[in-house]
């Protein structure tokens, strides 16, 4: 480190530091930067005094204003409750048919239900409620457990295979994986299942054999006519609505691996009014798609 000297080009003193022939100027910190730092420090002091800031052993400084984000949220929730309580109470007190026939209340149901559906249902059933692979459509009137308002709301409350103490339980056996049916038997009964809805090229003998397997293994849940049983959540096999696909490969995969869909329960997340509004929203959505 050399001695400070005056730079002949700028007229400023150097620091005495030199790198590869370049001398470092003793340039002072700009006053604007110092002013900014001073204002920042003063602002922090003010915030420390007004708002919660410093932690202590068991608590924290509250600030003379006594406000924080939790308080702000609580106040916001209180205001929201004051606005929504009247129509929530009205929804809770009225029967489904009364609400459906009340245009003003249904307007609220559509607005609130749309938000509820987007937050809780759309990720599985789709934003348009038409479902997808593994998730049933809610607008085609093909309900696994029943499509009346009370049944839909109960399904929302307890879910399916959800872990709720009252959950609906439904499971399709893995006929191939568990060694119940051979590949040929699965293909035979698969052809019969397809014949129920769209017809196949299988000969009569194969359909008869498939029918016998169906009666032995499938009719206890899907019914002897294949139209399903809502009491156990078994789908109708005679229509053209398939959750996991209705082609021979998809049907064989279902027969081979089995199915056990899961729907979460909303008993502890959505209030009675929310579940009721969501039920009516889904029914109204299905009605508009007809």
From TrEMBL:
Domain of life of the source: Bacteria
All copies of domain Cytochrome c, residue ranges: 108-197, 205-286
Entry keyword set: Cell inner membrane, Cell membrane, Electron transport, Heme, Hydrogen ion transport, Ion transport, Iron, Membrane, Metal-binding, Oxidoreductase, Repeat, Respiratory chain, Transmembrane, Transmembrane helix, Transport
Cofactor(s) the record lists: heme c
InterPro entries, alphabetized: CcoP_N (IPR032858), CcoP_N_sf (IPR038414), Cyt_c-like_dom (IPR009056), Cyt_c-like_dom_sf (IPR036909), Cyt_c_oxidase_cbb3_su3 (IPR004678), Cytochrome_c_Oxidase_Subunit (IPR050597)
Principal cellular location given in the protein's record: membrane
Gene name in the database record: ccoP
Subcellular location(s) per record: Cell inner membrane
Function field: C-type cytochrome. Part of the cbb3-type cytochrome c oxidase complex.
Functional pathway: Energy metabolism; oxidative phosphorylation
UniProt key word Mitochondrion: no
Entry keyword Protein transport: no
Name of this protein: Cbb3-type cytochrome c oxidase subunit
Family: Belongs to the CcoP / FixP family.
Cofactor: record remark: Binds 2 heme C groups per subunit.
Transmembrane intervals: 32-54
One Pfam entry name: Cytochrome_CBB3
Subunit structure: Component of the cbb3-type cytochrome c oxidase.
């Amino acid at each position: 480190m050399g001695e400070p000297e005056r730079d002949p080009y700028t007229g400023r003193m150097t620091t005495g530091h030199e790198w590869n022939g370049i001398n470092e100027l003793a340039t002072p910190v700009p006053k604007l930067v110092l002013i900014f730092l001073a204002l920042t420090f003063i602002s922090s002091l003010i915030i420390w005094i007004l708002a919660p800031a410093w932690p202590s052993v068991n608590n924290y400084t509250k600030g003379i204003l006594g406000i924080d984000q939790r308080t702000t949220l609580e106040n916001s929730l209180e205001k929201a409750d004051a606005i929504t309580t009247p129509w929530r109470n009205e929804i809770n007190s009225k029967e489904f048919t009364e609400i459906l026939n009340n245009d003003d209340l249904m307007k609220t149901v559509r607005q609130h239900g749309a938000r509820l559906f987007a937050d809780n249902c759309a990720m599985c059933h789709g934003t348009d409620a038409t479902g997808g692979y593994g998730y049933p459509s809610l607008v085609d009137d093909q309900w696994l457990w029943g499509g009346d308002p009370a049944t839909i709301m109960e399904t929302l409350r307890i879910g399916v295979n959800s872990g709720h103490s009252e959950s609906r339980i439904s499971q399709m056996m893995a006929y191939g994986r568990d060694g119940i049916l051979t590949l040929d038997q699965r293909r035979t009964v698969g052809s019969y299942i397809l014949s129920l809805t769209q017809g196949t090229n299988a000969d009569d003998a194969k359909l008869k054999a498939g029918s016998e397997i169906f009666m032995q293994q499938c009719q206890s849940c899907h019914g002897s006519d294949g139209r399903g049983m809502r009491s156990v959540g078994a789908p109708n096999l005679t229509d053209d609505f398939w959750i996991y696909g209705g082609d021979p490969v998809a049907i064989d995969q279902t027969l081979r691996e089995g199915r056990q869909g899961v729907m979460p329960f909303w008993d502890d997340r959505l209030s009675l009014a929310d579940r009721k509004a969501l039920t009516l929203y889904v029914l109204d959505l299905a009605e508009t798609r007809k």
